[in-house]
Amino acid sequence: MDSFEINKIIAAVLLTALIVIGIGKITDIIFYVEKPKQSAYKVEGIEEGIIDPNIKKVKTIETKEVDIKQLLAMGDLSHGEQVFKKCSACHQIAVDGKNMIGPNLWGVIGRQAGSIDDYNYSKAMKAYAKNWSFEEMNQYLIKPQAYIKGTKMAFAGLRKEKDRASVILYMNSKSSSPKTLP
Known about the structure:
Elements: H1 3-30, E1 51-52, E2 57-58, H2 68-74, H3 77-83, H4 123-128, H5 134-142, H6 144-147, H7 161-173
Antiparallel strand pairs: 1-2
């Protein structure tokens, strides 16, 4: 193959690339679509105007006050055991249970956040350092990463109130001294 043949092949490839790019540009001009000023989809639980366009992250999430007594009344231990199976991929809930990807959750209700010595918590969880009350656990389980910014827990959360209430009741039952319900 001489240099003239190689030049023809290179010219054909370049011409094809230019035609593809040119067709894309021309179709953009012909079929121009204006983007809507307001989003067609509204995401529940997020207040308007809280997304910073520079960092593309949600800064806060609207939390509504929930009567914890009413919430826990929706819960059921057997349902909580079923829902907890989602959690069991990362957490164990047993006396003297080992830490897995997440810490052992035996006796978690009433325990201080980030307090198990042999587990490597995120800095955010260690700094949080509140006791896990029924209310705190409920808010956390809605969306963990939004409630404690910087936590390592990658779980999306439990949106359904019955699921959260049932899991909280189930976790409370898994303790040497379960906390009395409010």
